[in-house]
Amino acid sequence: MTASHGIASARIISVMSHRFSFWVDAFGCVLQLSSSSEQARGVLDRYIFPGLPRASSWPQKPDADIAIEEDGAEFHLLRASAVVASATRPEELVPELIHHVDEAVVAAMRGRYAVHAGVVQVGESAILLPGMTHAGKSSLVAALLERGATYFSDEYAVLDGEGLVHPYPRPLLVRNGTPEQVPKLAETYGAYTSMAPARVGSIMALAFHPEEGWRIRPVPQSAGVMILLQNTPHVLAESPALLGVLQKAAAGARCWQGYRGDAADAAGEILRLVE
After folding, report:
1. What is the C-alpha separation between 254 and 125, in angstroms, rounded?
2. Whether 175 and 203 share a structural domain
3. What predicted TM-score, i.e. pTM, was given to this entire model?
4. Could you report the per-residue pLDDT of 200-214, keeping only the tens digit for each?
5. Contact 54/23 with Cβ under 8 angstroms?
6. Based on the domain organization, do 67 and 192 belong to the same domain?
7. Is residue 240 part of a domain?
8. CATH number at residue 150
9. 268 exposed, middle or buried (CB, 10 Å; 0-12, 13-18, 19+)?
10. What is the pLDDT of residue 10?
């Protein structure tokens, strides 16, 4: 889906006046989402933070301007008017679209701190599953949703100054054993998406090793803090307040580290531990 510039960009300029736009405020990052067709606008509305309010106008310049433009037989994904990806259907642009939205929101967050982690809620507490991209967070979150957990995120644990974790309600991007990511809404798994923050009850750093199966051990909260720190995006890692926020997040949590095998089996083990 890599896009070319030049002629494609020139053609896009001709349709810029026929736009469907809305604005979303995500953690203080104002996103302007635009399209040149109702079909592409529907894709943006369905997959960009479903559940967050939409505004038909905004009084200030957005932090990020992201668009899907139709150009003959192709759709182009634009960020700040530059083509970053192309596809024959707008739905095929969704994984790249979500990655660009993530990048913009994390860089512009105000009063929040993002950690790479899948997050679900069981009971009144949240479970954090730290891990960088390709760590298998999405498949594990999906397996937990199928077992009744409430969805927060498959990529970021968003923490406030008191250490509470807030939902980052983007669609899951699951691979299902293939290199291609497929967007899935939480409702696909029969799960609810939380819209309220929660206390962190558990931090589980689980590396995927099929040959190891389920083998984890409890670790102290100080180790949990270090695990979260190691999974903090570089753009936020230098914040002087970050360490204190992570300490507050881990203060009431039980922490584990180890290995897991199949996501479905691991989800059952996780729920047995926390319930």
Report:
1. 11
2. yes
3. 0.90
4. 999 999 999 888 789
5. yes
6. no
7. yes
8. 3.40.50
9. middle
10. 42
